[in-house]
Amino acid sequence: MKVEPQEEHRWLEQLLGEWTVTSEDSTGSGEDSQPWIENVRSMHGLWVVCEGEGIMPGGSPGQTLMTLGYNPETKRYLGTWVGSMMTHMWVYDGVIEDDGKTLALNCEGPDFENPGRTARYQDRITLIDANRRTLTARVQTENGDWKEMMSAEYRRR
Fold this sequence. Notes:
InterPro entries: DUF1579. This protein has a ten-stranded antiparallel β-barrel with strand order 1-2-3-4-5-6-7-8-9-10. 4% of the residues lie in helices and 59% in strands. By secondary structure, the protein is mainly β. The protein has a single domain, classed as Beta Barrel (Lipocalin). The N and C termini lie far apart (36 Å).
């Protein structure tokens, strides 16, 4: 089977390279993390693999792994995210928003404020320019509003 990358796959190629990541905790803990490094590589133009590594708030080492691709049959972006700080695998389903610069990735996972329950989350990757992007993580509240949990800025190295 041979599949050729499409325009939507090429959008993901803007993420390729090595990035310095600084983040801000929006939960009110007051702990911002030290800068991380993320390396993003392509798997023959169809998938990108984002590997992050750094020091967590509190001083312990952390690693993250995100995969992103596009399914032409469903016309949706898809992917996964795992981190060394938790046991849940996040499964993404998303779209590029009308601005053409934001990939909104929806997922479901453990509700951090209500143990034993699940919640809806959204990670938003926004391209600022060729050398800067942001990632914003947010959770949907019971009334349907979105509450920001974390934001990170990525700068090309």
